[in-house]
Amino acid sequence: MSLQNKLREAELNDNDKIVLTYSTGADIIHAYDNYMDDVLEQTGFAESVAAVITNSGFTNNAIAEIRQGDFLEDYPRDFSGFEEFVSRAISDNMYEFNFIDQTIEQYDYKRGFLTLAATVESTVGDVIAAPETLFAGWSTSVPTKIGKLTIDG
To answer: Is it the case that residue 153 has pLDDT exceeding 70?
Structure first.
């Protein structure tokens, strides 16, 4: 069952705020400087996040943050390749965005595991209106009157 179907079953209001989270990671050798690039390449994290936040009609805080930081200034505004442009902006500026967290679990003095997580805020209505396959691998939490509802996608 898709994330959207689960949200429909929960009978939430379209205007309710929703927090979507996408998390992935890979083993790293943190003694080397390029481990972030390696994990981005291995996991496709930037591409997965860009696919969601650039979807037309899906209002979210992440694309607004990228715009406010002037990371989209060089985009030619011809509406071609916008998703790829945003993916590259995320990859090149990972440490600049508040909606992305990085966590390293150190195994020893040089090895570990890097987890990347994107947290995107939107509304239930925007998520339900998006294509069914868009949120594959994403989880969500929605505050309700009886507590926080968490749904894994």
So the answer is: no
